[in-house]
Amino acid sequence: MVNMRKAAIIGCGFVGATTAFSLMHQGLFTELVLIDVDQEKAQGEAMDLSHGRPYVDTAKIYAGSYDDIADCSLIIITAGANQKPNETRLDLVHKNVAILKNIIPEITKRGCEGLLLIVANPVDILTYAAYRLSGFPSNRVFGSGTVLDSARFRYLLSEHLTVDTESIHAFIIGEHGDSELAVWSGANVAGIPIHDFCEFRGHYQHSDAMEAIYKRVKDSAYEIIDRKGATYYGIAMAVGHITESIIRNKSSILPVSSLLTGQYGLSDLYLSIPTIVNRNGAEQVLEISLSDQEHMALKKSAETLQQVIADLDL
């Protein structure tokens, strides 16, 4: 029996601990289990977070084991090696697939019927690996994808145009990584095509601005890692946003990492694509309109991931 108010976070590093902090403040769960190969670390994080319980709605947070996850509605996997300076997300693949091969069997043997949300990088590859290793239906296994990248995109556009981010509708899709692409053809502000709105605000050098903003989105993680060693606040809030759509059954459209089954002419791989997310997980992948150039870029992004997948023993 799934308890919709209970979740687990596997991996208590920067991302896992910050995600737990974010979820506590949202009050979505009455019970939150922290699991880490370093049990002392998990216990320390649980103790520290628990001392703030008088100020939030989360009733119970504790360090547990895989035996505690059987009735969880959501299992968030952040465990994995951290991305280092000058290292791409794809450079992490073999180390983190090996870690996932230890985690997933522990989940499946408990008969868990909840959702798996993969956050560790490279997220699209690891989500595909989790899907193959778990045997779960594809809607129950999805990744954080480019939800954070899209937030970065909207933030930078809002700074460029001096308008609220909530009025901006724009996606980054494809790999959560160097081959990701911005869907400029569908970007708009309050329904007004992005280039038209830019001109309303006195911006006419569209190509230069597009390239500069896209580059800043794509390089954001590298810049943050160079400066402080890791990224965790942004992704923790992105995971909180995804989680809220699940628990509140909002059916938000989010660019999570989802299994493609013919959409965009692609299949048998996970890519970050706008998807309806609710209590059923990644309920439906959407085939949004793309320009010919964007479609080609998406296929190139898919090829990048397919080459990596072909090298894995799954």
From TrEMBL:
It is found in: Cytoplasm. It is an enzyme of class 1 (oxidoreductase). The modification Phosphotyrosine is found at Y222. GO terms for molecular function: L-lactate dehydrogenase (NAD+) activity. Allosterically activated by fructose 1,6-bisphosphate (FBP). Keywords: Allosteric enzyme, Cytoplasm, NAD, Oxidoreductase, Phosphoprotein. The keyword Disulfide bond does not apply. The keyword Phosphoprotein applies. Pathway: Fermentation; pyruvate fermentation to lactate; (S)-lactate from pyruvate: step 1/1. SUPFAM superfamilies: LDH C-terminal domain-like, NAD(P)-binding Rossmann-fold domains. Its main location: cytoplasm. GO terms for biological process: glycolytic process; lactate metabolic process. It holds the Pfam family Ldh_1_N. One of its GO terms (cellular component) is cytoplasm. Beta-D-fructose 1,6-bisphosphate binds at R154, H169. Residues 6-143 form the Lactate/malate dehydrogenase N-terminal domain. Belongs to the LDH/MDH superfamily. LDH family. Homotetramer. This is L-lactate dehydrogenase. It comes from Candidatus Anaerostipes excrementavium.
